[in-house]
Structures
1.
Amino acid sequence: MNLRRILAVNCEIKIKNLNVRLNDRDLPIIKDLSLKIKSGYITTLLGKSGSGKTTLCHAIARLLDKRYKIKGNINFNCNGNFVNLLLLDEKEISRIGGSHISISFQEPSRFLNPVLRCGDHLKDLVDYRNNEWVEFLFDKFGFKNHNEILKKYPYELSGGQAQKFSLILALSRRPKFLIADEPTTGIDYADKKIIGNTFRELVLNENTGIFMVTHDISFAFRYSDYISIIEDGLIIVSGKKEYVLNSTDNLYISKLLSLINPDNVY
């Protein structure tokens, strides 16, 4: 089927001067962070473990609990409608979640209910029977017989299957933005390639905006349009991936870029 939208709606998530602190600790997890995530592009946040990547994902999706003190703005602008996500109540957030902004979690097996079959997880989100979009997702993520997957429990899936099924769940309602938290952790090269190629197709044909956080440097530079590098909650470089590749003046950035496998970069 032809997935190209006749009228592509350009949307963006604009983060401005975001600070996130856990309780009253002296050092914030996120420090005065500003970032733009645009529809039709893959924007990637690179950084080592503990640098604040997952906290940022959860802040955008409004999943941080009351222990976290948040200041700044996370503005969602789409088709002329503008809203600061941090000012919305739970009911308003639930209307945006899934259909506008959706998230796939790191280590999806931790977030899938082990006593529910995969089909039950999907049924909670959409009616997947004769659903061309869902069938398209299963096909693109490499599930030749998706009915077999839907009958399985999450613990019966391999690591790669669980990660790809988590992405299908997040994309099932055709969101304008996908937040992908470490989508390649613990999976093999073949599954990484499937995920990366599917992301590129969604960006091209669906005008989806994908915000990916990862420490998989080669994967990031292979598939991303824009890259930001975060260290200790602070973005130290941001721009098109070609610009970031040449930003070697900073010692941390230089060491990070030295880890890229040149065979895996366009």
2.
Amino acid sequence: EALRLPAARAVPAQGAAGYPDLMKEFIRSNPGLESRFKKSITFDNYSVADLVEIFQGMCKSYKLKLAPAAEEVVRQTCAEMKATKGNRFANGRDVRKYFEQCVERQAMRISKQDGKVDLNVLELADIGGSPLALVS
């Protein structure tokens, strides 16, 4: 007689993401979760250079260019956001919010200008501002 093994249970992949300390608290809040989330993967935070690259990638996907004077302000803003928000910094999400607010400012600037305007450039006026106010 052949050895019969129990049928393998179909186990769907499960995932949850969040800040490490809050995720540990979440998993410990229910004994059933601890048995379902057996592995944990921690990803390193992005460097300032990575954050700037994310911002530039968003510009590219929107077919926007940064004015030369704006590039350094974007780098400074990413560095300030990362340093100021500490463990609560949302990495790419906060950079995306910052980018979206820059695009909103660009639209406001363009709407107030007469004459020919380059719609494909984020100017210094679009980029500036307190990063804390931008992503809060």
